[in-house]
Design brief:
A: 62% helix; B: 375 residues; mainly alpha; 15 helices
Chain lengths: 363, 375
């Protein structure tokens, strides 16, 4: 009895879990599938129609019937006049017979229920958003339009240029500070560290405008340097706190023997502390990289409307604002922006989880 | 004897001269090295500011310049300090390690807090001192009160749903064979930007006129069930906020789940077994044994999520721009500051945001003092 109860429990657990995972996954799947669909298909049908489903489809095309076309005719079992056929007539077997064209020239289309799938997939959308080149768009009615590409490829490079230093610099600066707080004695150590803890939760909105004014005074607004410094400033408190917690726990004996051998603080830091702290550094690096890569607000304010340095999130948000109905561009663009963080995330998931645990359980 | 004395004098003179020259040389090098370092950095900056070389080259130079520059500053300063007399050098060295971080922290967070507080006491263009008039204005304007109500909705529904789903999935995953796969799927949205998530969910909520084929999943299901297509994010206010909150829950549940999952694994199995042997049913085991044991984690996740919901900006900004009664403090701050150019009200909103997270700050500080982080 008990065994069966447990088995039933396990089935229930797994079914609920699968259901929840399905719900969590489905929005992203929709985006992913749509990014490969033809622009006109995206507008005309839901993305789930790429799966086999019953639908009314064109089964065959026939030539126009011979003979008198003015009176009542019978085509494929359906009977009616030319005008009625133009509207479409249901044959006894459920198929719909439609006369396309005029009375003299044209064709007969036969539609019926069938299992079908919209598997008209393409990589064109990616090509269109990635390059900055012009391309021609053809609408269903045959009209065309010249459209400028979105150059997300360029924005991708910009995102990298922003994200790599904005990840490495705060880690470096914070690691120095964490070592200083953990292993050096100096006046004001406590007060300064209290400041670090206090700054952990300060909302960055509070800093945006004063910093923007400083940047304008210094003449660096809109440069990469400005964004690196901003991300460093906003990420430092957490980085210092996390690395301090880690570096403090390193065994003191190793350091002492190094000092006895005549090593300087800088040598100990570079040769001992940094290599020993790799797990903590990696954990925070992933954190900071995802945060910077996905950031929109800081880029919006400190990069602004400079197309040369704009990052991916900005370009995407611009497409949302100006052409929010161009789903073929939005879906492909969004997926491009997700590509790198998802790769980093799945490749280094274990470090990331460890970092989350260290960062949040402790403080 | 005189000769030797003269020789000794001369030797002393030579030694003095050598010492003086060495000192001069040292000072010269001590100045030269930082100057060279500075010139290199400055040239790099100029190159990056006005260059027309291919994008990829600029990118590589920028990355090397940024990262290398920071490392160089530390090394050059350390080199300088080692040149100083031991007594002064060892006093200065800690400030080389801690100083840059503290300077950045003070420049980017501490001073801005004071400056924003100061600006919030002035009128829209910071020309007339108005005292707390901006704050009174904010708390008496109906539109602003709606913004606070929305933040409250985010706080209550966002936090409870994130915690609830996080805990539920952590418990289910703990008992399932597909644990790591399920956790990866739930956790994945954490790697997606708010802008990306905004696009994903805008697509889910996409609304077409009745009769046209629906391309948004939610309206697709809704119309298949016989409903009329709805504009979900502009729907009956304030319930449209819930459709935005769903996005945050989708993004943040993974975070809660990971922490809960680790905490659950930390609860001793004997404790749970003992409760079961004593005849407790699964619900009692959960509420009487599990929950008290992971209380600390629940509090941590709750505070993190609360801070997150208070600062929420990107989701709302990308989805609705704060229209249709979905504005929150952070979007209203942006609108006041950058659209209306009303610096006084904008700053006051930022300060209100700070006051909202104040309890957490005090809690952190108190805990730090209790743990006594320094040995």
């Amino acid at each position: 009895m008990r065994g069966r109860g447990i088995r039933r429990g396990a089935v229930f657990v797994n079914l609920t879990l699968i259901f929840l995972c399905f719900i969590w996954l489905i929005p992203t799947v929709g985006l992913f599938v749509s990014s490969f669909r033809d622009p006109n298909d995206i507008q005309a049908s839901g993305w789930w129609t790429v799966l086999p489903h019953p639908d009314t489809v064109l089964i065959e095309e026939l030539p126009l019937p011979e003979g008198d076309r003015t009176g009542v005719m019978t085509i494929e079992g359906a009977t009616g006049t030319f005008e009625e056929f133009r509207e479409g007539i249901a044959a006894p077997d459920g198929r719909i017979i439609t006369w396309v064209g005029n009375r003299r020239a044209g064709r007969i289309e036969v539609r019926g229920e069938a299992i079908t799938a919209n598997t008209n997939l393409t990589l064109d959308n990616y090509e269109k958003v990635l390059t900055g080149k012009e391309y021609t768009l053809t609408f269903p009615d045959g009209s065309t339009q010249q459209v400028q590409g979105d150059d997300l490829g360029g924005a991708f490079v910009n995102s990298l240029v922003v994200a790599i230093p904005a990840t490495v610099i705060p880690i470096l600066v914070a690691a120095f500070a964490a070592y200083g707080f953990a292993w050096m004695g100096f006046a004001g150590r406590r007060v300064l560290f209290v400041l670090v803890v206090a700054m952990l939760v300060v909302p960055l909105q509070i800093a945006l405008v004063p910093i923007l004014r400083d940047y304008v005074t210094l003449g660096i607004n809109g440069t990469y340097l400005a964004v690196w410094l901003a991300h460093t400033g906003f990420g430092l408190a957490l980085a210092t706190y996390l690395l301090f917690n880690y570096i403090r726990e390193l065994p003191g004996e190793i350091l002492e023997s190094a000092f006895i051998d005549g090593a300087s603080h800088m040598q100990v830091f570079l040769r001992l502390i940094l290599p020993l702290s790799v797990p903590a550094l990696a954990a925070f690096a992933i954190f900071q990289f995802l945060w910077v890569w996905n950031d929109y607000l800081v880029a919006l304010i400190f990069i602004g409307a400079k197309p040369d340095t704009q990052v991916l999130t900005q370009r995407l948000a611009e497409i949302v604002g100006s052409r929010g109905d161009d789903w073929h561009l939005l879906t492909a663009g969004a997926f491009i922006s997700m590509l790198l963080p998802l790769t980093v995330f799945f490749a280094l998931q274990r470090y990331f989880v460890r970092g989350l645990l260290a960062g949040s359980v402790k403080g | 004897l005189e000769v030797t004395a003269g020789y000794a004098d001369g030797e002393r003179g030579v030694r003095g001269l050598a010492w003086f020259l060495t000192l001069l040389g040292r000072i010269a090098i001590s100045i030269l090295v930082p100057v060279i370092a500075f010139v290199i950095l400055w040239q790099g900056f100029l190159f990056l500011r006005q260059n027309d070389s291919p994008k990829v080259i600029t990118a590589i130079v920028a990355v090397i310049w940024g990262v290398g520059g920071v490392a160089m500053i530390y090394l050059v300063m350390n080199w300088l300090i080692e040149r100083l007399p031991q007594r002064i050098g060892s006093r200065l060295l800690p400030y080389l390690f801690v100083g840059p971080a503290m300077a950045m922290l003070i420049w980017f967070l501490f001073l801005p807090t004071l400056r924003t507080l100061w600006i919030s006491l002035f009128n829209s263009d910071t020309s007339i001192f108005v005292g707390i008039q901006n704050y009174i204005g904010i708390f008496t304007t109906p539109a602003m009160l709606e913004v606070f109500r929305n933040n409250l909705l985010w706080l209550v529904f966002g936090t409870s749903l994130t915690l609830g789903f996080g805990l539920l999935i952590a418990i289910l995953a703990d008992r399932s064979r597909f644990e790591s796969l399920a956790k990866a799927i739930i956790f994945m949205p954490m790697a997606i930007s708010f802008v990306g998530a905004g696009i994903i969910w805008n697509f889910v909520y996409e609304n077409r006129q009745q009769g046209d084929p629906q391309i948004g999943l939610l309206n697709g299901i809704w119309t298949a069930l016989g409903g009329e297509p709805q504009a979900w994010t502009a729907l009956v206010q304030p319930w449209n906020n819930l459709f935005l909150i769903v996005i945050m829950v989708w993004l943040q549940t993974g975070f809660a789940m990971v922490l809960f999952s680790a905490a659950i694994k930390g609860v001793p199995t004997e404790l749970l077994e003992a409760a079961r042997v004593d005849g407790a049913n699964e619900r009692q085991v959960f509420f009487r044994v599990m929950v008290p044991n992971i209380r600390g984690t629940i509090i941590t996740v709750a505070t993190t999520t609360i801070i997150f919901t208070l600062k929420i900006f990107d989701v709302v900004w990308v989805m609705t721009g704060g229209q249709f009664g979905t504005g929150v403090i952070a979007t209203e701050f942006y609108r006041q500051y950058f659209t209306n150019r009303n610096f006084g009200i904008g700053s006051a909103l930022a300060i209100i945001l700070l006051i909202a997270v104040f309890p957490v700050m005090i809690y952190n500080l108190r805990r730090f003092r209790q743990q006594e982080g320094f040995r």
